[in-house]
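Late entry, calcium ion complex.
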Amino acid sequence: MKTHKKSASNTEKKPAPEIALSPRQASLQKLYRIATVLAFVTAGVGVVWGTTRLGDYLFPFRHARLAQAKERTFAEPKLNPSNPPGPAPEGMVWIPGGEFVMGTVEERDDGFPAFPDAMELHMVYVDGFWMDTHEVTNEQYAKFVAATGYLTVAERKPDPKEFPNVPRGELKPFSILFKKNLKRGEYNLETHEGWWQLGHGASWKHPEGPDSTIKGREKYPVVHISYFDAVAYCKWAGKRLPTEAEWEFAARGGLDRKKFSWGDEFNPNGKWMANSWQGEFPLENTKEDGFDGLAPGGTYPANGYGLHDMAGNAWEWCHDWYQIEYYRDCIDENGAKPTRNPKGPGSGFDPNEPGQPKRVQRGGSFICAPNYCARYIVGSRGKGEVNSAAMHTGFRCVKD
Ligand SMILES: [Ca+2]
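Prediction complete; structure with ligand written out below:
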């Protein structure tokens, strides 16, 4: 059979004849080209802006992924037998380790996942470890500072390179304070400035600003602690920060897929189990749990492993970098093999604030309310920029 190849000359396009444009047509053509380029640039900037500012909301297929996550099945998680390797270090308990299902598929009233960054349920295994029964207290942090002369980030003069728009004379140490007594219309929970303020002179020693002290608050959790301040303390104490997986394993207290670190009911038998915010945040704190601000460690009952305040009171720093989609990488397609001792992704990225690498924080704080934050829910996640401290950020340590 003969094959016919089209000759090259048949496929070659003839050059379009030059058409002379009038000056008006030429200008219109130029204008059209500029408009096209501008449209592309605007669309590009729009996409970048949208994904960075609204990435949390725009992420595709969230409803479908939540439904999938809810249907995922797991083998019965196995906890290790509790065999502490020796006597407990002071103020610590043995967390036996084992398998657990990490994450939460809580949803909002509109069916949207309540915690999109935590909805990919996955099985994890962690080795056993020691953990502080309480968040590190002012008294403990004071001992560390007395021994080392350590200055927390909030007590240091800010680096002019990080604040190029602030005149040098005005660069003073600061931390972040929650704006109290806000009235309706006076705040915006969507922006930092909308409900937080710079507190010059605020630090762990002066939690509400320069005029406040920690006298009489020795047993309260230390706050205004940045990630680096927490790591420095842990190192001095011969300990380390927990990984996020260790933190959640410990917080679950041996329970499987419960909403809170003590069970599924927020107030079992009417009892308050954690220090959070009651009433409409941020307008009114009815403090039914007894505390407007922080509470001394041990005020509320311990969980199944003997740990206090794994929900509420102060946020707790974890070792891991924060990435919104990290759990997705941990899902085992066969559902058979748990991720073993995960230590988080290699770097931090928050689509809402791309320039600010963040580490994980867990447990929520005394200003988490049902209508905002709600991160006293045990599988939910938080995050913080590594150099930032605030009046509700603290930590606890673990030890191998
Ligand atoms: Ca409270």
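The pocket of calcium ion is lined by residues 275-277, 287, 289, 291, 366 (CB under 6 Å). Will revisit in the morning.
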